Amino acid sequence: MVYWSLEVLQINKLTNKQFNLPMFIDNQIPNRQKEEKLILFLRRHPAILAGKWLYFILLGLIPLAIYFFLLYFQPQILRNIIAHAGLLLFASVYYVFILLFFFSAFIDFYLDVWIVTDQRIINIEQKGLFNRVIAEHSLDKIQDVSGEQKGIFQTLFSYGSVHIQTAGEVQRFIFFQVKNPFEIIRVLNNLIQKREAKFEHEITEKLSPPEY
Amino acid sequence: MIEVSLYVFLIIYGILLAIFALMTLVNLFHLFAYGFLSFTSFFMTFIFFAGVVLVLFITYKLGLQIDWSQTFII
After folding, report:
1. Angle at A62 between CA A50 and CA A75, to 5 degrees
2. pTM
3. Of A69, A70, A76, A189, which one has the fewest beta carbons inside 10 Å?
4. What Cα–Cα distance (Å) separates residue A160 from each residue in A48, A139, A146, A184?
5. A91 and A164 share a domain?
6. Which domain holds residue A130?
7. C-alpha closest to that of A178 among A164, A197, A165
């Protein structure tokens, strides 16, 4: 699917090659300017979501473990009608909430996106159920880009964080747990260099004396 | 000493399910409001609802075997 971060990059390759974006990604670029091209559409690495899901799966095994424990060691509790009714409803609520957390983890993963266009970077984060943050910065304001991969999991799955230092009000942008952070740094640096070269070219053209 | 019916459990269960439904609506609102409608989000929503329906169906089937009008003393 083209909207998976570096896949977008591979298609685009920082050229003028046009490609069709899924409509929902197109809609995610706030105040999209004319001729603005999407370079990267990033989400956290899927391993992060898988880790959370694994945790919920383990939580889901707890009632089963309790049930089998009672069945083999305390069967009289299960024969008690009050305990039986209470445990049934408790297990039911427990599992629907586990499913809800499962779904919420997906939504949290799905709604956190970082977008890099040829003009700016946009940070869209869903923080909990009722808090959504959208921030953006022009590429001109980027002062420094760095990245890190810490620990065995990040190294194995090749994900990490990209830190972007800017001169604006929000001074530090962080792309959290994104796939191939060093590749992203390379792309960002290329973009910045391209823009700087374009800017220098424009200035030189303006300052150069007219030819008679 | 108070005599309580097993229906009390069902009332508490209903309240918790209402909270669950509210939180589900908020989650769905996010998907719809922010325009993240895609095959992936539809598929995950389907899996979620299928799981919930399954859990509620099993609860209903097992709950039928219980006489909820029984009382106990606390």
Report:
1. 160
2. 0.79
3. A76
4. 11, 21, 11, 10
5. no
6. 6-44+112-200
7. A164
Six token digits for residue B43: 């598929």
If asked whether residues A121 and A173 sit together in one domain, one would say yes
From the CA of A67, how many Å to the nearest CA of chain B?
15
Q: Are residues A120 and A187 in the same domain?
A: yes
Name the residue type at position B64: L
Interface of A with B (CB under 8 A): 22, 24, 27-28, 81-82, 84-86, 88-89, 92-93, 95-97, 99-100, 102-104, 106-107, 110-111, 126, 129-130, 132
The answer to whether residue A13 scores a pLDDT higher than 50 is no
For B5-55, the pLDDT digits (tens) are 889 999 999 999 999 999 999 989 888 877 667 888 889 999 999 999 999
Q: Number of folded domains in chain A?
A: 2
Residue in B with minimal Cα distance to A91: B59
The domain locations on chain B are 3-73
Is A205 a member of any domain? no
Asked if A162 and A185 count as a contact pair (C-beta separation under 8 A), the reply is: yes
CA atoms within 13 A on the CB side of A5: 21
Q: Are A190 and A17 in contact (CB under 8 A)?
A: no
- B11 contact A CB<8A: no
A36 with A116, same domain?
Answer: yes
Is residue A58 located within the same domain as residue A116? no
**Domain annotation covers residue A206:** no
